[in-house]
Amino acid sequence: MDYVTARLPELRRLAGSLCKDSDRADDVVQQAITKLYVHWHKAQSAENLDAYVRTIVVRTFLNERRLRWSQVKLVDDPIERPAPHGREVETRLVVADALDNIPPKLRAVLVLRFLYDLSVREVAATLGCPENTVKSHTARGLTLLRRQLGTHLAATDRKEQRA
């Protein structure tokens, strides 16, 4: 499928933003592509194919989070991966860590609204919920994100004061 080949990096980026784990993101994308393949006749008639596929990826992520096996840990400690250095990378990692502590549905709304710059209407269509739900999830998600970032920033300030 030429469409999937062309969109694969974007689909992986979206899933990665939601999952915060590249292996899980690959699983979500694979499941989404399988669903797309099965329903390709329906997808071709969609008004906006990119939005249709994005919806499949987001809903696959949310459904996967509801399943019990998604909470199974195979190792006690996460595998440490060396991170690139630099202030921008540090900020991105701090925000990603804070997003990781936000419930999946709120995280999906924040990622779609602010990382993918979708309108409230587009996010509502993607998630299959009313626009007011997107607005309330955005407000609650931002409050939780600010709380998470405030905790991190306070800890960083204390470390810098000791040094």
TrEMBL record:
Gene3D superfamilies named in the record: 1.10.1740.10, Winged helix-like DNA-binding domain superfamily/Winged helix DNA-binding domain (1.10.10.10)
Residues passing through the membrane, by range: none
Alphabetical list of CDD domains matching this protein: Sigma70_r4
Alphabetical list of SUPFAM superfamilies matching this protein: Sigma2 domain of RNA polymerase sigma factors, Sigma3 and sigma4 domains of RNA polymerase sigma factors
Sequence ranges assigned to domain RNA polymerase sigma factor 70 region 4 type in this UniProt record: 95-143
Ranges of residues in domain RNA polymerase sigma-70 region: 4-69
InterPro entries: RNA_pol_sigma-70-like, RNA_pol_sigma-70_dom, RNA_pol_sigma70_r2, RNA_pol_sigma70_r4_t2, RNA_pol_sigma_r2, RNA_pol_sigma_r3/r4-like, WH-like_DNA-bd_sf
Family that this chain belongs to: Belongs to the sigma-70 factor family. ECF subfamily.
Name of the protein: SigE family RNA polymerase sigma factor
UniProt source species: Kribbella yunnanensis
